[in-house]
Amino acid sequence: MNTTTKGPLVLITVGPTREAIDPVRYISNHSSGKMGYAIASAFLEQGCTVVLVSGPVGLALAHPNLSIIHVQSADEMFAASQPYFQSAQIVVFAAAVADYKPAEIFTYKMKKSASEFELKMVKNVDIACEFGQVKRNDQIAVGFALETNNEEQNAVHKLYKKNFDLIVLNSTQDSGATFGFDTNKITIINKDVVFQSFPLQSKQEAGRDITKAALRLATNHTP
Ligand code: CTP
Ligand code: CA
């Protein structure tokens, strides 16, 4: 896809990552990718060009201004995002990246044995942090936080730590607002620690609200 001739470029990471243990096993999480795909749709509705770097999800989306790059692991997600970062005006980190990966990937399928087995895990690349360190002032970064306790405090801490302009706090308090559901209850927090809370709504609607907030900031940053 030629990403230079259309509307502002939006880079979005989405879905879970799969961290291989051996050729047939992996460690992952329950992310459905629905929120990230809804955000992609909302940006496309607004005339943006979207590059979606997607972990394995059971979703499809097609649009002339959309390019989807399918990846498995966090390392692949980071590498696939890199070529688009510089030219992206908005970057949305919607992926549920696995925090750890197995220290080594076994070349052959591991065999069951009589003894217990321990798996050594090492830290994965923090994609949002890496990009946050090189982000320009004219770029808008949007991150996510899914917290179970001290929700608002933890989200604000992540906003600053990762150099986000906005962080979307996903509430785990309400039923119908968790992994795999079609609804979400979000709070958007900006760098001035202003909270904008939304009711339980469809992920499509939440995607539009997130997109609107990001585009408003991007317009303010346009020289
Ligand atoms: N993120 C990322 N790469 C990682 C981990 C997280 O890009 N390796 C991004 C997520 O896409 C999200 C934000 O960072 O936008 C926060 O993710 P989260 O898992 O809530 O934060 P962590 O820093 O991993 O902290 P923890 O899981 O311990 O709460
Ligand atoms: Ca994490």
Mean pLDDT, to the nearest integer, reads 93
Overall domain count: 1
Give a count of the beta strands, DSSP E runs of length 2 or more: 14
Specify the overall morphology.
globular
Radius of gyration, in Å, reads: 18 Å
The low-confidence runs, each spanning 5 or more residues with pLDDT under 50, are none
Strand content: 25-35%
The succession of helices and strands, N to C, reads EEEHEEHEEEHEHEEEEEH
Q: How much helicity do the residues have?
A: 25-40%
CATH architecture: 3-Layer(aba) Sandwich
Number of helices: 5
* Helix-strand category: alpha/beta
**CATH fold-type name:** Rossmann fold
| Ligands present | cytidine-5'-triphosphate, calcium ion
Largest sheet: 8 strands, mixed
Terminal CA distance reads: 27 Å
CATH top level class name? Alpha Beta
> Numbering strands along the chain, what is their spatial order in the largest sheet?
5-4-1-6-9-10-12-13
